[in-house]
Amino acid sequence: MIHQVRIKSLPQEWLWCETWCDDASKATAKTIDLCNNPLTKEPKLDSAMRICPEWNDYDTEIKKLLAGELQPS
User: Looking at the 3D structure of the chain, how many domains does it have?
Assistant: First the structure.
């Protein structure tokens, strides 16, 4: 299939990863890859909360939904 369908690379802004990209480029990132950092071995959930500050708000809202404290909007 690879010989039949032309594959093009996307610019770096389409997949930002803390391990390989600089902090300045995060502001223009279209997607953030919560990849494992081989240097720190930090758990993914911990890095998600650190890299994406809004993660905590989403996580809290989901926990409330699952506990029946909120109704889906």
Answer: 1
